[in-house]
Amino acid sequence: MNTAHAAWYTLPLFILCLLVLISILLSTLKTGISPMPSSGKARREILQQLFDRLPDSKQTMVDLGSGWGHLVIPLARRFPQHEVIGYELSWFPWLANLTVKYLLRLDNLTLYRRDFLRSDLATASVMVCYLVPQSMHALEQKLKADELEVPLLLSHYFALPSFKSQTVVYLDDWYRTPVYVYERLTT
Ligand SMILES: C[S@@+](CC[C@H](N)C(=O)[O-])C[C@H]1O[C@@H](n2cnc3c(N)ncnc32)[C@H](O)[C@@H]1O
C-alpha cells in the first residue's frame, strides 16, 4: 500500500476520532464532568450496598449520568428483576453504552440521551451517581423543587450539600473515596 492509499484509509478514522473527542469535550464543558468511569472498587461497593438494601419487589434504579455504562451495565446484569435507567448527555459514551446493552440483551435497561435535571425522576426508587459538587447542588435543587422522596440514593465521591447521609463507606483506595448512602430521603 502506498502513502496516498494509507492516507485515504486513515483520514476518515482520524476525523471520526477527532469528532468523538470534540463531542466529549463539549459535553464535559456543559456538565462540568467527563464520562470518567467509576473504579472497580467503587462499583463493587455500590453493588454490595444496593444488594444489602434492595427490597424483593420491583424497583426503578436510575444512574444519573451513566457515562460509558461501567455502573449501569453491572446494575442491569446483577439486578435483572429491577428496571434500570441511565441518563447521559454525552453522545458517544451513550451510543457505546447502548451498543453494549443490545449486545448483552439487557431488556431491563433503558438508556436516555437526556439531561436528568430536566427529566421526570418521580418513579425512581433508587438513584446512583458519580458527579461533581455543582451537579450535586443542582440535583439537590431538583429533588426539592420536584418534592421527590427517594427511598435510596448512593453518591460516589461527593455528598448532597445539605442532606445528611445515614452511612458513609470509605473505599480501600489511595483517596479513601467516600460513597454516601442516603435512605428515605425526603425533601
Ligand atoms: C463521572 S461520569 C460517571 C459515569 C458512571 N455513572 C459511572 O459511575 O461509571 C459522570 C457522567 O455524568 C454525565 N452527566 C453529568 N451531568 C449530567 C446531566 N445533567 N444529565 C445527564 N448526564 C450528565 C456526564 O456526561 C458523565 O458522563
Please, could you describe this protein's structure?
By secondary structure, the chain is of the alpha/beta class. The chain has one domain: Rossmann fold (3-Layer(aba) Sandwich). It is 41% helix and 21% strand. It contains 5 helices and 7 strands. A 7-stranded mixed beta sheet has the order 3-2-1-4-5-7-6, with helices on one face. The radius of gyration is 18 Å and the shape is globular. The chain starts with a helix and ends with a strand. The site of S-adenosylmethionine (SAM) has 24 residues, from α1.
Number of domains: 1
Computed CA radius of gyration, to the nearest angstrom: 18 Å
Q: What is the name of the CATH class?
A: Alpha Beta
Q: How many distinct helices?
A: 5
Q: Could you state the CATH homologous superfamily? A: Vaccinia Virus protein VP39
With strands numbered from the N-terminus, the spatial order across the biggest sheet is: 3-2-1-4-5-7-6
Query: From the coordinates shown, what is the CATH architecture?
Result: 3-Layer(aba) Sandwich
Keywords: Membrane, Methyltransferase, S-adenosyl-L-methionine, Transferase, Transmembrane, Transmembrane helix
InterPro entries: FAM173A/B (IPR026170), SAM-dependent_MTases_sf (IPR029063)
GO molecular function: protein-lysine N-methyltransferase activity
Protein name: Methyltransferase small domain-containing protein
